[in-house]
């Protein structure tokens, strides 16, 4: 008599999460690993990301940390080639790597603008293109780009960050329409303020108080709450969701006068 143990097991999926050394990226990697994925954690800080991967799986059988500057096309190609060699390609890509630097619009430095776009937009493009080529060949795949409510609603000082995240949303839609015929979906998560090291560096006490007054939930998100939404978009249950932008923001985008 057959039972659950005799049922065929679904193949293990491989997920690559960029910017996974800490914060939202690390939370996503942990969640996808808990969901049964092999995870590749990529981050520009090699020591940090290798330690993060070892904390998930000390044996390094199902979690692997690797150095990656997503804005470096040569390095991106090499990392994907290595994943192809070891684990036969990427089934899930989460483009989470991102940077921010706040300045008034009138004084915004060009070099900062270019670097923010290189990481936040070009990085998502390069990784998305590499991942999609393999996904299309296999006829299946999930891409989730981590955007931001700043890409939908402007905030003071976020000239480059907000504009770059708006570009990520547009890029997501472009991926979605071109990859859909090949069994690949592309969606975006738009987190509101989230308790990460980057947010703590850039949000003054005044900014935090302003956000908490504007968010109906009256608090910042945890990285795990962003990871939960991301995991859903990577799941079989989200197979018909494509080109969507999912705010995870405690009602911030929906709010008017509170």
What does this structure look like?
The chain has 258 residues and is an alpha/beta fold. The protein has helices at 23-34, 46-56, 73-87, 110-138, 159-179, 197-202, 205-214, 223-234; strands at 14-18, 38-43, 63-67, 92-95, 141-146, 184-191, 245-248. It has a seven-stranded parallel β-sheet with strand order 3-2-1-4-5-6-7, sandwiched between helices. Helix 1 (23-34) crosses helix 8 (223-234) and helix 3 (73-87) packs parallel to helix 4. The longest helix is centred in the middle third of the chain and has 29 residues, at 110-138. Residues 1-8 have low confidence and may be disordered.
Count every beta strand, where a strand is a DSSP E run of 2 or more residues.
7
Question: What proportion strand?
Answer: 5-15%
Helical content (DSSP H or I, runs of 4+)? 40-55%
Structural class: alpha/beta
Order of helices and strands: EHEHEHEHEHEHHHE
Low-confidence stretches: 1-8
Give the strand order, joined by hyphens, for the main sheet: 3-2-1-4-5-6-7
* Average pLDDT figure: 94
- Number of helical segments? 8
Largest sheet: 7 strands, parallel
Report the principal-axis shape.
globular
The radius of gyration is: 18 Å
Oligomer: single chain
Q: Termini, distance in Å?
A: 61 Å
